[in-house]
């Protein structure tokens, strides 16, 4: 069966016949998408509509089993790891279907999905993930901070699969806390105390291995090391759906699809306030739709990524053709962020009809990079966004994040547009500062209202900046 959207969304677009001439994987579609970066005069929002129409949902057979049929008990105490494994592998052997988690509290270790499997967590069901690190061994092929390695398994994981889904109105609770996983940051606010281990040495060792070209299979972390896994991570998968679920207490990034094609994240509540608890981080993915979600996070709400530094240049895999719509952003750092792990490049990102409904978010649109990341950010289009308040800037383009300037891989940032954006309060409307030898190119603002800005925009080393109908503190602002 085709998994349908949990609620219908009607787009103001033309007939479906247009999709037939521009499907993913066809020359027509590739030419249409490439046209935006090559100066196409087509309205970018027509392009966004085409991307949405063209993303393929997983096809899951209409076969259903309950995890309780395989010995799972919803008492919050019984270890259900084997029951989840048996249900998934048994159903996969019959060409796939839906594994249902009924109401109750189910304790488990890592859950690994197979092709054509849907994990359906019913309302009233909670999957509790073990706090025992051994429950996420053996190590698997993954990424940490944009660098490939062998590490603890993400809590829900799939590698090289197709047609997979995680659905339902239930809860996935990682049980991470100031006692489990979070202290590895080395930060006292997350439970670290002097004498406890941290991830600092492991992170440096992993980057060194990447710089030296050590094969990924030899970059072994896991037991005895302190790099925290992501919560949900489909890696190198096709046709992925994550719909309806609520996430709590995650060890690291919450939703982290990597090298995936045709990804839909819809109606998800990503609510976790631990360290690096980004809401959704599509990395080196293409054809991604994020819609109807609520982000209440300990870091960036959505952060689009594409590998880091030497490893990112080795893989050279961009994130592209991404549409974000009808989302709500609460606490966090940036609402919609690109980077800083964006060495493979990010292009063709569209965000519309979103709300920043918080007084505790730092930036609205946040592009962060530096001269060690390199790569590019191009063709980013934002419209119809309301921001109650941001602590820093409505739009931040940050070339000085992390390592900053002088490392030989200057980034390219060009063609960023904001249209019909309303902000209640901000420190800056725009803060965009390029390098003297590497200018930002093409920032366009139209129909922008910032009711209360503490400071004027800061725009330096930028070319082709245009303001049209931009009003700040009640006064029209132009660029000379």
TrEMBL record:
What is this protein's name? Exopolygalacturonase PelB
Q: Where are the transmembrane segments?
A: none
Task: Please indicate if the UniProt record lists Zinc as a keyword.
Answer: no
From the UniProt record, report the name of the gene that encodes this protein: pelB_1
Ranges for the Rhamnogalacturonase A/B/Epimerase-like pectate lyase domain? Answer: 65-111
Q: Which domain of life is it from?
A: Bacteria
Keywords of the record, alphabetical order, are: Glycosidase, Hydrolase, Signal
Indicate yes or no for the key word Signal: yes
InterPro entries under this entry?
GH28_Enzymes, Glyco_hydro_28, PbH1, Pectin_lyas_fold, Pectin_lyase_fold/virulence, RHGA/B-epi-like_pectate_lyase, TAT_signal
**Secretion signal: which residues?**
1-30
Would you identify the family this protein belongs to, as annotated?
Belongs to the glycosyl hydrolase 28 family.
């Amino acid at each position: 069966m085709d998994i349908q959207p949990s609620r219908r969304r009607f787009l103001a677009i033309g007939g479906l016949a247009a999709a037939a001439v521009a499907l993913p994987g066809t020359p027509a579609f590739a030419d249409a998408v490439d046209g935006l970066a090559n100066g196409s005069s087509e309205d970018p929002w027509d392009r966004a509509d085409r991307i949405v129409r063209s993303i393929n949902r997983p096809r899951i057979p209409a076969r259903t089993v309950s995890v309780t049929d395989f010995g799972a008990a919803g008492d919050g105490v019984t270890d259900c790891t084997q029951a989840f494994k048996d249900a998934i592998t048994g159903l996969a052997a019959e060409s796939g279907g839906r594994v249902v988690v009924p109401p109750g509290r189910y304790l488990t270790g890592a859950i690994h999905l197979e092709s054509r499997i849907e994990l359906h967590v019913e309302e009233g069901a909670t999957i509790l993930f073990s706090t025992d690190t051994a429950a996420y061994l053996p190590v698997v092929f993954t990424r940490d901070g944009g660098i490939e390695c062998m590490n603890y398994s993400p809590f829900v994981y799939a590698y090289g699969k197709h047609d997979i889904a995680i659905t339902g109105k239930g809860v996935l609770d990682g049980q991470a806390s100031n006692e489990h996983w979070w202290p590895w940051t080395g930060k006292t606010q997350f439970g670290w105390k002097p004498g406890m281990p941290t991830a600092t040495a492991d992170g440096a060792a992993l980057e060194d291995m990447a710089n030296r070209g050590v094969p990924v299979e030899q970059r072994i972390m896991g037991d005895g090391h302190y790099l925290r896994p992501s919560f949900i991570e489909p890696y190198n998968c096709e046709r992925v759906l994550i719909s309806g679920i609520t996430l709590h207490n995650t060890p690291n990034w919450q939703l982290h699809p990597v090298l995936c094609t045709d990804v839909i994240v819809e109606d998800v509540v990503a609510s976790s306030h631990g360290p690096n608890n980004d809401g959704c981080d599509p990395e080196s993915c293409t054809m991604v739709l994020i819609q109807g979600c609520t982000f209440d996070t300990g870091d960036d709400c959505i952060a689009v990524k594409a590998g880091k530094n030497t490893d990112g240049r080795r893989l050279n895999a961009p994130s592209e053709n991404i549409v974000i719509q009808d989302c709500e952003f609460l606490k966090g750092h940036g609402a919609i962020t690109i980077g800083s792990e964006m060495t493979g490049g990010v292009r063709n990102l569209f965000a519309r009809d979103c709300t920043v409904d918080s007084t505790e978010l730092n930036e609205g649109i946040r592009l962060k990079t530096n001269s060690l990341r390199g790569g590019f950010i191009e063709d980013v289009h934002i419209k119809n966004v309301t921001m109650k308040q941001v602590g820093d800037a409505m739009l931040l383009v940050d070339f000085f994040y992390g390592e900053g300037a002088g490392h030989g891989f200057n980034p390219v940032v060009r063609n960023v547009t904001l249209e019909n954006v309303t902000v209640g309060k901000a420190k800056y409307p725009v803060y965009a500062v390029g390098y003297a030898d590497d200018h930002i190119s093409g920032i366009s603002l139209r129909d922008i209202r910032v009711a209360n800005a503490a400071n004027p925009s800061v725009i330096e080393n930028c070319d082709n900046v245009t303001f049209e109908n931009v009003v700040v503190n009640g006064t029209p602002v132009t660029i000379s």
